[in-house]
Amino acid sequence: MPRYDTVSFLSDYGQADEFAGVVKAVIRDLAPHVTVIDLTHEIPVHDIRAGSLALARCIQYVPAGVVLAVVDPGVGTARRALAVEIAGGAGVVVAPDNGLIAPAIAMAGGPGAAVVLTNAEYHLAAPGATFAGRDVFAPVAAQLCNGVPLAELGEAIDPAALVPGVIPVPRLDGADVVAEVLWVDHFGNAQLNLGPEDVAGWDGVARLQWGEEVRTATVVTTYDDIGSGAIGLVLDSYGLLAVSLMRRSAADELGLAPGTEIRLSPAGAERAGGRVDGGLTIPVALRRTDDAGESSR
Amino acid sequence: MPRYDTVSFLSDYGQADEFAGVVKAVIRDLAPHVTVIDLTHEIPVHDIRAGSLALARCIQYVPAGVVLAVVDPGVGTARRALAVEIAGGAGVVVAPDNGLIAPAIAMAGGPGAAVVLTNAEYHLAAPGATFAGRDVFAPVAAQLCNGVPLAELGEAIDPAALVPGVIPVPRLDGADVVAEVLWVDHFGNAQLNLGPEDVAGWDGVARLQWGEEVRTATVVTTYDDIGSGAIGLVLDSYGLLAVSLMRRSAADELGLAPGTEIRLSPAGAERAGGRVDGGLTIPVALRRTDDAGESSR
Amino acid sequence: MPRYDTVSFLSDYGQADEFAGVVKAVIRDLAPHVTVIDLTHEIPVHDIRAGSLALARCIQYVPAGVVLAVVDPGVGTARRALAVEIAGGAGVVVAPDNGLIAPAIAMAGGPGAAVVLTNAEYHLAAPGATFAGRDVFAPVAAQLCNGVPLAELGEAIDPAALVPGVIPVPRLDGADVVAEVLWVDHFGNAQLNLGPEDVAGWDGVARLQWGEEVRTATVVTTYDDIGSGAIGLVLDSYGLLAVSLMRRSAADELGLAPGTEIRLSPAGAERAGGRVDGGLTIPVALRRTDDAGESSR
Questions:
Q1: C217: buried, middle or exposed (CB in 10 Å: 19+, 13-18, 0-12)?
Q2: What ipTM describes this predicted complex?
Q3: Of A259, B72, C150, C241, which one's alpha carbon is 20 to 30 angstroms from that of C167?
Q4: What is this structure's pTM?
């Protein structure tokens, strides 16, 4: 009896090859009732950190079912392949155990039962060991949807022993906070590992310093509130602050990339003294929800 | 009772991030019976004109159901979010009201009932205002599919008051016609805002002039009819003329881009005099259908 | 009565335009019960060889149903549009007859009944002849899924007369074998037209020579077995050998591309003498399965 009917699928397979397509073909073949939702396949090659952050951003929105996540530079080696129940069994995450999934699983309430995918009876025979997405993860995801019990797929492991993800936390330095760019999106917004509560009491203005650059930014709620020529700290859709420009790419124009360290200082006083770079400041009452707060953990 | 079972989805979200994937996850969660057709997510960032043209090219082919279109530089501001019935209720377009959808709706016979999406009961709660695709448009699209009446989603508006699209029309200048490149496709074909009727009586040959360039092109029906080294004006799949090369990119080799202005002059006389650039001319009887004619409006 | 419920779809349409989306919209409109699996749409423009290789890699994994393949530089010309049964009617390949599909069909056991798609009653009327994917192949694929008999779609042809694909075979030159790069994947692995049996008895080490470069490579089963700074000949997921680096792009760093000719020589003796470039050699028992062996035909 089918147990799940959705597989949400994230990988670093890219679009140029048929990798993601073949995984979906295998799932279709084994579990024809399943719909696959492509979250993204453009995680940078082998970038476990970027994949783990994307999965953490997605996890609260994926439907009940299987989450298939493959960023797997150690494919074929001793790194473990896992299936981990989440949300009381409403979902199962199928993925390599390399830090990719721990942050998303933590956000989903922590791991339930977990197994290592050692039962080759549920894998595809293959001439080489380099495409576990097709040969291990896809058939396991399909069979979970078909109702095969987790315990059939391999040996139970301690779910607390997953390889942890690495998510940078900001650090305080006097009145300053030293943050890091987590993610640059398609529009050039540079998401920081900060929420609005981290700049509370700063009067909605911060001085940003990275490399040789020093700029002033205002906290706003929409990109068009930033104003032309100014820099915004936009409360983004995950409850974090993103360095943004109005209708242009902040990452391109300011030279920001994932991992860029940015020091933020309160600039309210300077602003009164006229040193702000300009820009239309829209003071807003910021409140970070509990749900959103989890997204930086 | 479900009303629609297909959502056709176009955006400028790109593929690098999980934006389009999360929108589909939300729809799947709220309306599991729905299939989403990805029209494209590679509309250039914030390019409302390009998005409106792509949607106009698609509209006659999309199945009954919801059309979800998101190119939304003003997200979170006062720009209206809409749901607009088309084709007597066979479809509903869900999108921002910024010119993106007006041309497609005109091609589909004009707008029916329309509402502004002000009823937040049908939106997702979110910590920030920057991802209306996920928080407003996706849940509304799903609930329309589930049978929620349009009138539940917000206040009715005058459907005639949609923000109009901007589609350039060619202009006549003596015997010449001054056209514009609407679209450069993946193969490098440069679609003009001209149909074959605009060069009727020209004997199948036109002189093209743009920037410092002057070239001669012949009107043909297939790319391979152009011939090597020659330029074609190909009757494309939307009934418009495209500047093309045989199995090479006209846009790359001739320096054409959306918005490039091209002056076309009758070159039949010159051709008799031998000034044609060469190329194999295949004279054809061109007829533009009524359906196709609408695609330039 | 529906006959198939899956269409597996490969093309060179790219993602920038709505081409693939419109094809799927047409299929959805005509055969709403069908699920489309996108294999890939990023076959390089007009590259029939690349498309035929990708399709051959996919074919053993696609579910029963229709395989829709469109790489069609000669669209609109006299090149034939075909539907070809495979696997005793478990599948039908719908595609142009230009070499794109012959290798995959051979791998699937050879062609069954075949027709030329001459019955325009099953096509969409269109103002131009340049988008056969939308106007010919998509509606035919949909109608095959709906149960329309193959014979209705056009005139039967001799299935043995398909335009053959061009797949390079390696050649022996004394003790050497001269191979060719078939495919460079998203991760930069350069797949050769060689299986491990072609280097059997070489003691797991080969000298590679291309252009001015001479390097030594070791045969391994995982990328991480290659070791940092060394070159691997990895037994890939199709049973062929790929030139790879550990967690870096071999194609980028070594200057390899599809079509690059590489001469391989046994290097076991030299290795004993210490001329190997370094790298951790993991001797493995390689066995090429019958299934995998077919993938180079």
A1: buried
A2: 0.90
A3: C150
A4: 0.90
Q: What is the number of other CB atoms lying within 10 angstroms of the CB of residue B289?
A: 14
CA dist C238 and C236 (Å) reads 5
- What is the interface size between A and B, counted as CB pairs within 8 Å? 110
Q: Which two tokens stand for residue A147?
A: 């109702």
Write out chain A residues lying below 8 Å of C225, CB-based. Answer: 76-77
The H or E element containing residue A19 is: helix A19-30
Q: How far, in Å, are A196, A221, A234, A235 from residue A284 at the CA level?
A: 11, 8, 11, 10
Question: Quick one: tokens of C246?
Answer: 């550990």
Q: Does A157 touch chain B (CB under 8 A)?
A: no
Residue A294 reports pLDDT greater than 70: no
- Mark yes or no for CB contact B61/C22 under 8 Å: yes
Q: How far apart are the C-alpha atoms of A38 and A252, rounded to whole Å?
A: 27
Say which DSSP state A63 is in: P
Question: CB count, 10 Å around CB of C121?
Answer: 8
A255 SS3 class: coil
pLDDT in tens, A20-32: 999 999 999 999 9
Beta-bridged to residue C213, according to DSSP, are C210
How far is residue A62 from each of residues A99, A207, B32, measured CA to CA in Å?
19, 37, 12
Q: What is the DSSP string of B164-211?
A: PP-----EEETTEEEEEEEEE-TT--EEES--GGGGTTSTTEEEEEET
Contact A237 B26 (CB under 8 A): no
How far apart are the C-alpha atoms of B176 and C284, rounded to whole Å? Answer: 72
Alpha-carbon distance of A291 to A234, in angstroms, equals 18
User: Under a CB-based contact definition with an 8 Å cutoff, are residues C181 and C38 in contact?
Assistant: no
In angstroms, the Cα distances linking C103 to A232, C51, C108, C242 are 55, 10, 9, 20
Q: What is the CA radius of gyration of chain B?
A: 22
